[in-house]
Design a protein that fits this description.
about 375 residues, alpha/beta, Rossmann fold, Rna Polymerase Sigma Factor, Chain: A, seven-stranded parallel β-sheet, four-stranded mixed β-sheet, 14 helices, about 15% strand, binds magnesium ion
Length: about 375
């Protein structure tokens, strides 16, 4: 019997790569359901090709454009939660940003196995997710390339031998810019990533280094390590993805060409490695591999993420949500690149700190607070 896959976020870059893997392994994998935010033309193509039983679209107003006659079309976050509770083998959560949170929680509550590409779920509700995973850590397999790397490395070492874990960062397109020049960056420059082809939000987060900040938080909850033991290393070639430093000062690194199909296939095949149509790493053809410390003065978003981890759970939610709102304002050309961390920091300073958050309603309340606070801040700035 084929393994049934529910894919949330099917029209984004991870969603498309997931469908490539499903096509490549069509003898053992099949699509159960597809959900997306609102790219209906692509969704219609996917429906025709992969013949899902169920469909969900986040944006309700789009349903009449969908060519689907099997059953009713689910809509909104509520629809995704209904889909998640159904009977299938693995859910891939590749939704962009905070809309991925509630489907992740629902999947864990329903005891589903989840391949998680939506790092924002862990950033906003890491403590709650850890609690839901108690006793069954294999229920959640990370799809972020760095975290898949670390997950694989950690299988090979006794936990007491782990000293630090290192997440690599490409450094984004502005790594060599002078600090003063960052102000003038236009949205189209920030949305062009040097090594990875990804969606808008994560591409911009990579340019500000907020993506790495979110990944440090993701690693903290995923692997239950103290933030001080999670380091970031800029590595523009994106060949090393994760490194563990061991008690005897030796290192183990995970290397692969930057291709999301590798961590996706690993997650879909329950942590097994099968042959894949992806490029090989060739040391002979590679000119150099280079490494740098991240510049947190030039890219303060990474520093904000470490500070948020040190202050408490509420700061992680506000960091994530404020970043989503201001990033959107930057993409729309309303603010400049250096305003992004500045406004996020302001929201962090103005919220009421709570150190441990154990229920999802409090997470959503803080999320809504941060949307309103940041939107007001932007409105006052633009006046
Ligand atoms: Mg990543």
């Amino acid at each position: 019997m084929k393994k049934k896959i529910l894919l949330l976020g099917s029209t984004g870059s991870i969603g498309k790569a997931t469908l490539e893997i499903i096509e490549h392994e069509k003898d053992s994998l099949e699509i159960f359901g597809l959900a997306c935010k609102g790219s209906i033309d692509l969704l219609n193509e996917q429906i025709q090709k992969f013949k899902p039983k169920y469909i969900c679209v986040y944006d309700k107003s789009q349903t009449d454009k969908i060519n689907f006659d099997k059953t009713k079309i689910f809509t909104g976050i509520a629809g995704m939660k209904e889909l998640v509770a159904m009977d299938y083998a693995i859910v891939v959560n590749a939704l962009p940003g905070s809309i991925g949170l509630e489907p992740t929680i629902e999947a864990l509550k329903c005891q589903k196995t989840i391949a998680l590409a939506n790092k924002e779920s862990l950033v906003m509700a890491g403590r709650i997710i850890r609690k839901l995973l108690k006793g069954n850590p294999n229920q959640l397999i990370p799809v972020d390339s760095e975290h898949s790397a670390l997950h694989q490395l950690l299988q090979a070492i006794p936990r007491k031998e782990l000293k630090t874990m290192i997440i690599t960062a490409s450094g984004g397109p502005f790594r060599n810019h002078k600090k003063d020049d960052l102000k003038k960056i236009r949205p189209e420059e920030a949305l062009n990533h040097p090594t990875w082809k990804m969606g808008q939000k994560i591409t911009l987060d990579s340019a500000t280094l907020m993506n790495k900040g979110l990944e440090v938080i993701e690693a903290r909850w995923l692997f239950d390590v103290e933030p001080s033991r999670i380091k970031v290393l800029v590595h523009p070639e994106s060949i090393l993805h994760g490194i563990v430093e061991l008690t005897d000062n030796s290192l183990m690194a995970y290397m692969a060409c930057p291709d999301m199909k590798i961590p996706i296939a690993y997650a879909l095949n329950a942590s097994q490695r099968l042959p894949l149509p992806v490029n090989r790493v060739s040391f002979e053809e590679m000119a150099t591999l280079s490494f740098f410390a991240p510049d947190m003065d030039k890219f303060p978003s990474l520093r904000l993420a470490y500070n948020a981890l040190a202050s408490g759970d509420s700061a992680l939610i506000v960091l994530n949500t404020a970043n989503e709102v201001v990033s959107e304002a930057f993409i729309q050309g309303k603010i400049c690149f250096t305003d992004i961390p500045r406004i996020v920091e302001d929201a962090l300073e103005h919220h009421t700190m709570q150190s441990e958050i154990e229920d999802i309603d409090t997470v959503l309340e803080l999320h809504n607070w941060a949307i309103i606070y940041t939107a007001n801040k932007l409105r006052n700035l633009l006046r």
